[in-house]
């Protein structure tokens, strides 16, 4: 039995960079895509120092190259996510391109919910109320990501 629904593609030791576009392969051999928004974030701007802020898009393709017009913040599959480099080093994320980020590529307001119930923006500053899509001020794992992508796309979760 597979450890995840997301398939291993190509491990990479190269550090992800802002604007990198990456592919994840699903159990049906289709791909979904993500984008690196911020890299190596300091402790005051992320739940863990060295975190990456990524978007995962609601764009499924049989090709490993995305339709770039589908990689927009209004087409997110999940709220913004903080993650570490493990998905790249294990090969769950394969970088398939890079495009400089523009304002149109970003949400107008990032929102993250802390375990305390308060909300923060991508700079770690408090915000008074949630702004959707609102993610978690927590470091997510590739297993967490696998479960949530599976839920959104209708694949049964892999048991722990």
Structure explained in plain terms:
The protein is mainly beta and 160 residues long. 10% of the residues lie in helices and 27% in strands. It has a domain at 20-104 and 139-153. The strands form two sheets. The protein has a six-stranded mixed beta sheet with strand order 5-1-2-3-4-10. The protein has a four-stranded mixed beta sheet with strand order 8-7-6-9, with no helix packed on it. It is globular, with a radius of gyration of 15 Å. It starts with 19 loop residues before the first strand and ends in a 7-residue tail after the last helix.
Instruction: Choose one word for the global shape.
Output: globular
Number of helices: 2
Give the spatial strand order of the biggest sheet: 5-1-2-3-4-10
Uncertain spans: none
Helix content: 10-25%
Approximate strand percentage: 25-35%
């Amino acid at each position: 039995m597979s450890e995840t629904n997301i398939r291993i593609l190509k491990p990479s030791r190269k550090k992800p960079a802002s604007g990198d576009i990456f592919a994840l392969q699903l159990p049906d051999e289709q791909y979904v895509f993500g984008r690196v928004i911020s890299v190596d974030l300091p402790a005051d701007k992320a739940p863990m120092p060295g975190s990456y802020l990524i978007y995962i898009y609601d764009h499924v393709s049989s090709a490993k190259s995305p339709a770039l017009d589908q990689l927009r913040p209004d087409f997110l599959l999940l709220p913004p996510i903080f993650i570490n480099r493990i998905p790249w080093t294990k090969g769950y994320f394969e970088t398939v391109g890079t495009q400089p980020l523009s304002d149109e590529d970003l949400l107008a307001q990032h929102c993250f919910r802390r375990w305390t119930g308060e909300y923060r923006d991508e700079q770690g500053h408090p915000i008074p109320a949630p702004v959707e899509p609102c993610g978690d001020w927590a470091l997510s794992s590739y297993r967490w990501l696998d479960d949530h992508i599976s839920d959104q796309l209708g694949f049964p979760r892999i048991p722990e």
